[in-house]
Amino acid sequence: MKNKVISYQGIQGAYSHLAYKHVFPSSLAIACETFQDAMELVENGKADFAMIPIENSSAGRVEEIYRLIPKMKLHILDEHFEPVNHCLLALKGSTIKDIKNVSSHPQALAQCSKKLNNYHFHTIAKFDTAGAAQELVEQNDKTHAAVASALAAELYDLEILDDDFGDFKGNTTRFLILSKETSIPKKDKNTSYITSLVFNVRNIPSALYKALGGFATNGINLIKLESYSMAGSMKASQFHVDIDAHIEEKNLQLALEELHFFANEVKVLGVYKRNSYRDVMKDLS
């Protein structure tokens, strides 16, 4: 997709930057301070797509994204799986023995928690991994390190103290590609699809059980079910569901009819091709 503008959270060297380069190598990019900023650029027509991380194989979901998605006016166009290899970076000439403090995005720190605890490092949360790496140059403090990519080390001329600092092999982040325009691919019998939606259950007994019952009776597989409290309420919950089916499939349409009896504000976020990397992950597990 040439001549497209992609927005992402972070700066050059961030994992979102790497993901964008792999998916849209010939496109322009706008780096944003926050996920919301990146999404709003697309909503306002200043970018064509946003690449947003939604979950990681070792640290779980990016909670902020699940809260932002229902509020946005964007649609899921596609998904991308980006292998993540965390490195421990420091100023040139530094050694592991010099390090006392390590900064990075909270997700990256969580994905390296075992090693961070083993070294008894003090951790500091930052907006993004590459930003933490860039700060090392400004701080000029050999006791401070950052968890970031090898690309960040190259861009900011830093020492790689450990090029495999993550806790898990095969660490991968799933990204969503978001668009202002709805684009539902025509169903191909030889292609697998995912339909993503959000909904709130009605305030009636066993509402969630009944809402999900239609998927079971119609033989529809749910890949993911995430729940979280809605803003301003400790009782009302919202649910994000990834469904292993195309919305045009009759069985899914029947399941959605049942869902509407027990749920409020059902919103289809997108219909998109099931990424083949999911099969690779299944084989590795």
Roughly what is the average pLDDT, rounded to an integer?
A: 91
Q: Topology as H/E string? A: EHEHEEHEEEHHEHEHEEEHEEHEH
Our measurement of the CA-to-CA distance between the termini, rounded to an integer number of angstroms, reads 33 Å
CATH homologous superfamily of the largest domain, by name?
Answer: ACT domain
CATH topology description of the largest domain? Alpha-Beta Plaits
> Assembly type of the shown chains?
single chain
User: Which regions have little confidence, pLDDT < 50, spanning 5+ residues?
Assistant: none
Radius of gyration, in angstroms, nearest whole number: 21 Å
Query: What is the structural class?
Result: alpha/beta
Instruction: Please give the largest β-sheet.
Output: 6 strands, mixed
Number of strands: 15
Beta-strand share of residues: 25-35%
The portion of residues assigned to helices is 25-40%
Number of helices: 10
CATH architecture call of the largest domain:
2-Layer Sandwich
Please give the domain count.
Answer: 3
What is the 3D form? Answer: elongated
CATH class of the largest domain: Alpha Beta
